[in-house]
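Bench log. Compound arrived from synthesis this morning; before running ITC I wanted a structural hypothesis for how zinc ion sits in the protein. Inputs:
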Amino acid sequence: MVSGTALVYDDEMTSHKLLWEDPICAIEIPERLSSCFNNLQRYSLVERCLAVPVREGTEDEITLVHSLNYLEVVKNTQNMDEEELHKVSTNYDAVFFHPTTYHCAKLAVGATLQLVDAVMSGTTCNGMALVRPPGHHSQKNAANGFCVFNNVAIAAKYAQRKYGVQRVLIVDWDVHHGQGIQYIFEEDPSVLYFSWHRFEHQRYWPSLRESNYDAVGRGKGMGFNINVPWNKIGMKNSDYLAVFLHVLLPVAFEFDPELVLVSAGYDSGIGDPEGQMSATPECFAHLTHFLMHLAKGKLCVVLEGGYHLRSLSESVCMTIKTLLGDPLPPLSGEMKPCFSAIESMHNVRAAHQSYWKCLSYEDLTPLKNLSTKLCQLEQVQTGVPLVDPQEAGKANNDEATKTDTFLELHMKDILSLEPPARTSVAVAESNVDLDNGDIDELNAIVREFAGGFVKEEKDLNALRNMLAILEKIVKKKVTSGLVVSRETSVSSALALKYCHNQRLQKVLCIFIGEMDMNIDLDDGKVLLINICGKQSEQANTKYNISLNWKEDAEGNTFSSVLFGFILPVVYSYQPDLMVLVVGSNQTFGTNGILLLISLLHGLAQSRIFALIQDTEVQLLEDISKLLMGDISPCFGTYTPASQEKIQMIKKLREQLQQEWEMLQCSVKVPVTEK
Ligand code: X5A
Ligand code: ZN
């Protein structure tokens, strides 16, 4: 298995800087890079990565995307004086040149390609390149928006040429639209480009018609360009998560890329003066974690924007920690997308439903009257007071300091939750170390709740050992545990009872297979999701959900139910502990179970207690390897789910989206408006 994380960085890229007064470009400063690196050092993350040296990108590499003519223009800036540099800069929108810009821009390209080489050659599994100047706005013939050469676009073409990669996914989580990348791959179905961006009905820079959701690509590339416009500022963790679950991930799993590149701008994070969004650093850990499940983990993250130094550098650290395999802090904030985000998702899903099987059968019509459009009209009518630029500058400064203070505390909070050593694996027959006092307590629970089942000393021993493992998780001595059971229904009921006695507030129990026992649900303290091949007679309720799912023999259809239903529900619930049971007659398939467990690592600080039926020998081996981090994810080839399955997910979403709000991804349009 390939492991390890590459870090590509060189402080030479800090020499490119703005030499004159320009309020628009003033935020793209060298400290953006150095503060990221310093913070990585503070968290001792640098030494955990493989240091990969930078190099200059060659002319052949740069012209994979840019014209020779434009390359010459940039090259000529090397020997210019300030006046000439200023003059060339004014030929472009929001760009500055410095005598070292050409060199730095070549290093930014080369650093990105070094990262692609490390990952594609199998030297490391994933990695990040910290580069300046950024790339995603630059175009064949033009610099734009602080960007000179399009690092990520060049990397995609390079990987295709050098390694024969067929499909590349580019995820652009920068708060600006990477129109440069869109233009370059618009007609190319081999590169899927996804971008979310502040849009505000085209009022926000770069204010392009083609940044809207209906720009889906052209010619053969139709369906391979996904734009999610944000029509409001203040988007938060749950809005970003919802778009990943309901738009990007289902499509990305269907696309099945062989390499994932991230245009990683952190101006979409809290405190950024450009983005004005509210996503906190751990949100980027979750976004990264999701993407690590594609392309056999081949993930290259490349810095783009990000202008609040503290927010930027904390978010970069969260990204790299996640690439290294550290457990994820829980995602903070209310788990409910805002209405404007739901409208955006609705429209993107509508625009793409004819291109992607995972979105077909949705029967969505794009919304014409967006709620935010009305708001803006009202604002115009009532006359919004004009802001004095000096006052606005002060307000911005206050905001930035407020975010500094907030992040100082917030990072301490979320990182103090770091779980202990990883996994304790035990089979039921083995003896587990117990403190003397605990034995009596555990014996008592077993007698009380499973007395009828215990026929021999062996059974008693097995259940007691199971509880001992569970206890280690509850008392935070280990992160996860695995137990083999002869009778999963009895064991899981007992385990849940134990959790209840321990006063755990929220336990998620996912039971895969046939459950032949009623688990007594204490309202809200347990959320039970039963996945089995049989239709349940009982109607679904908020805390007791039954999913009838039979995985097809070949391929995987489970990603649709994972992203479309299970994860939204589970993220809405935010459990403290997860109990995963694999009983007999499971119909979810090994790959489905492995992907589920792997994705659940983003919740409950990775605390997973797995209970496996003793007949499932192969699964037992795979799950224990997965829990110990010994296998890299590979979840079988995507097979589109049947119409019945997608209709079922849609129905479940409609049924439960008032209770579990992360399920919301479309707007009910009154019949009169259709
Ligand atoms: C890379 C990046 C932003 C340019 C903003 C110009 N560019 N107003 O974030
Ligand atoms: Zn940006």
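What the model suggests: Residues 24, 94, 134, 137, 145-147, 174, 176, 205, 265, 267, 304-305 surround N-(4-aminobutyl)acetamide (ligand 1) (CB under 6 Å). Residues 565 and 649 are 7 Å apart (CA to CA).
ITC booked for Thursday regardless.
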